Amino acid sequence: MKKEQAPVEILNQGPDIFIPNISVDCIILGFHSCSLKVLLCKFKVCEKWMLPGGFVAKDEDPDESARRVLKDRTGLKNVYLKQFCFFGKKDRIDTGENADMLKRFNIQGDKGRWYTDRFISLGYYSLIKYDEARLFVNEEHEEARWFDIDDIPPLYADHKEIIDTATSTIRKQIGFIPMGYALLPEKFTMPELRCIYEAILGREIDRRNFQRKMLSIGYIQPLNETRRAGAYKSPNLYTFIKDKYEEAEKYGIQVMSNNF
Amino acid sequence: MKKEQAPVEILNQGPDIFIPNISVDCIILGFHSCSLKVLLCKFKVCEKWMLPGGFVAKDEDPDESARRVLKDRTGLKNVYLKQFCFFGKKDRIDTGENADMLKRFNIQGDKGRWYTDRFISLGYYSLIKYDEARLFVNEEHEEARWFDIDDIPPLYADHKEIIDTATSTIRKQIGFIPMGYALLPEKFTMPELRCIYEAILGREIDRRNFQRKMLSIGYIQPLNETRRAGAYKSPNLYTFIKDKYEEAEKYGIQVMSNNF
């Protein structure tokens, strides 16, 4: 699988190219304007938004399929991407809805039949730097947009459950996931870092406790710089200590478990 | 899927009954003689041990398939069972090895061909009470045995990687997993509980710290009983406070993150 393809082409190829009954879905998370965002796509012929996803080609590892989806949608390579779970309930997809989708794309007969069968989805989440992403879609057929993680529109199939499971997994493993390092630019403010943890933990965090702990564990360091912030007091800027953060991914940052 | 079936029958049925290219593998963990054990099976015609596993019937949710495997192997229902990851690398299975297996079972021609294709495995782990399990296998074809988690024989395909990923996932989420509650009998000693955490964390834990923290978080309570222990001092017995443990599974036990 090299080239990006239009959805119609993909649906037409089907099981000659892809493993049947298997899809990949990617929760792509970015941070912007002090909120955690998730990238969603929509076929213009359909009403519901869905996760960026695809299928596993017969010559691909699932991780490669997920990287392909991510690159096709955002232009990004070499980003933080992890498999986290699978979704396979027999009624998770409304096969009637998929059949309607085929009709709207004018795919008829045997060609599209594979797409009305049952699918088990392999779930991936990715943490990317919002400003580095360029949203690519096939404009004839698709839209793509960032949504606040707290304000998601009605989604296709069980995609809301897939997002909820991803955030719950991240919450349970938060000490092992380099959230800030993957999501923030090189220089960031303490409120920005706190915002990310608040979005994942789903609650407010005490401002002073957070700052004290974040500084005490030695994974970030203050810069001798502030950011211009109009009429407000200019906030201090911080940066990550890369080696320490990589270590944390392996062994966990104790203080980052949800003990703020 | 109702009745347990011999491996030969299952391999003969194949894609008429099951979703192609998908398997489930179960890491069944039990605790005995102060060590954490994993249940492994072996076809008598093969040399390598493997995880208890099976396929997903077309009318089953994968969770139901995993529960079926678990019940067929141990007689247990209603146990702690969680999906944790999937394994799908294109070279994860030696298809030649699978073809050899078919030959040994004397399955020829088209019938077994589905089994020499690529499989994506859905990984489950289960925590069970060792003394309640009854190992069932098809004795004509199979063996089943508990192995110390630290002393596992050479395994089929990527099954060692599946076990390592399961223990690593449990380690990262240890505050959210009712390890002791699921693995220990109603009455247990403090060293038994500590043993479980040591096996999962892969290191020794300070005896006194562990005891102090376990008691301070209020999830276990001392009983006014000891266990007879021959010439040694009789150790005190403890029990779990069920409601608290169920709460912990939802919200996490902060102190159980690897901070002993």
UniProtKB/TrEMBL annotation, chains A, B:
Domain of life: Bacteria
Residues of the Nudix hydrolase domain: 19-169
TM stretches of this protein: none
Sections of the chain in a coiled coil: none
PROSITE patterns: NUDIX
Protein name, UniProt field: NUDIX domain-containing protein
Organism whose genome encodes this protein: Dysgonomonas termitidis
